[in-house]
Amino acid sequence: MAEFENVNIAKAANVFFDGNITSRSIEFKDGTRKTLGIMLPGEYELNTVNKEIMDIQTGELEVMLPAEDWMEVKAPGSFEIPANSKFKLRVKSLVDYCCSFIK
Q1: Contacts for 40 with CB less than 8 Å, ≥ 6 apart
Q2: CDD domains in the record, alphabetically (predicted)?
């Protein structure tokens, strides 16, 4: 899906790691939520509350999910992150992503 229709978009950006990761939250009429964002090259550790599906639109990164080894993900690609977990990223080039939150 190249675009989303009939959504609410937060004006304020979510800014992490001194602006190296930014996103905007969008909410659908059924209450589901996604973020659309950019990650600059670097290494990061993040955590989740809900299960997440990360779709990589452009760019390349490596991800280390809980109890797994580093895995390379290139656009177009995706990976799932379990709920209530920490994961690590090595972003190799500018990454454009869409993150879906699964309750």
Answers
A1: 19, 20, 21, 91, 94
A2: cupin_PpnP-like
Show the tokens assigned to 18.
């001194």
Q: Is the pTM here over 0.90, yes or no?
A: yes
pLDDT tens-digit map of 6-55:
999 999 999 999 999 999 999 999 999 999 999 999 999 999 999 999 99
Cα-flanking dihedrals φ and ψ of residue 92, to 5°?
Answer: -90, -30
Q: Listing from the earlier edge strand, what are the strands of the sheet with 86-91?
A: 42-47, 86-91, 60-64, 71-74
Q: How many CB atoms lie within 10 A of CB 49?
A: 10
Domains of the chain: 9-102 (2.60.120.10)
Burial, 45: exposed, middle or buried (Cβ in 10 Å; 0-12, 13-18, 19+)?
Answer: exposed
